[in-house]
């Protein structure tokens, strides 16, 4: 029998974490389809089609072998000039964090750029992102669950040092649960 790799547990977060991490993409930029990794099987499953007409403004996924305080792998938003296919592993340079509160629970979203995309890999910190892009992220994540009668608030955007701390905490939290 062949060995099967579980995307969350069998893939490394990367040798250069927390500065450069492996991101496993679940949702392509431009999609209205919310996929997520099934925790038991590791397969990509349809969670739902977004109730609103919004499309994901960025490639969305998680960092393997991490555990956020919401009980899920740590989320990551990967800026790239292209939509990235679900289940694609991407080297992602961390530039910050979007601190979100989803239905009363903290749900951090690490913000990174695709390390192998010359259109964005020159960006090294949050201040280099266009202000309008930050406004789009805030608007999307605060509005995409409104038609589901769920409240999402964006607390603030944090710099890469805060993101590094959050990633390191999520790696340590994962190890306490799964190592």
UniProtKB/TrEMBL annotation:
Which residues are substrate-binding? 34, 48, 60, 144
Gene Ontology terms: cellular component? cytoplasm
Q: In which residues is Mg(2+) 2 bound?
A: 75
Q: Which Pfam families match?
A: Pyrophosphatase
The chemistry this enzyme catalyses reads:
diphosphate + H2O = 2 phosphate + H(+)
Supply one GO molecular-function term.
magnesium ion binding
Q: Has UniProt tagged this entry with the keyword Metal-binding?
A: yes
> How is this protein named in the record?
Inorganic pyrophosphatase
In which organism is this protein found? Flavisolibacter ginsenosidimutans
């Amino acid at each position: 029998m062949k060995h099967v790799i579980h995307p969350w547990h069998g893939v490394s977060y990367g040798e250069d974490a927390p500065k450069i991490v492996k991101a496993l993409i679940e949702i392509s930029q431009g999609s209205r389809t919310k996929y997520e990794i099934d925790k038991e099987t590791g397969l990509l499953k349809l969670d739902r089609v977004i109730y609103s007409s919004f499309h994901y403004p960025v490639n969305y996924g998680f960092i393997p072998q991490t555990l956020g305080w919401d009980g899920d792998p740590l989320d990551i938003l990967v800026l790239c000039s292209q939509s990235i296919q679900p289940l694609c592993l991407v080297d992602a340079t961390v530039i910050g964090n979007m601190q979100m509160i989803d239905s009363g629970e903290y749900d951090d979203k690490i913000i990174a750029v695709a390390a192998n995309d010359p259109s964005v890999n020159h960006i090294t910190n949050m201040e280099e992102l266009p202000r309008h892009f930050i406004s789009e992220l805030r608007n999307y994540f605060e509005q995409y669950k409104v038609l589901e009668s769920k409240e999402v608030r964006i607390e603030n955007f944090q710099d890469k040092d805060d993101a590094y701390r959050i990633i390191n905490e999520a790696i340590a939290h994962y190890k306490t649960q799964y190592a």
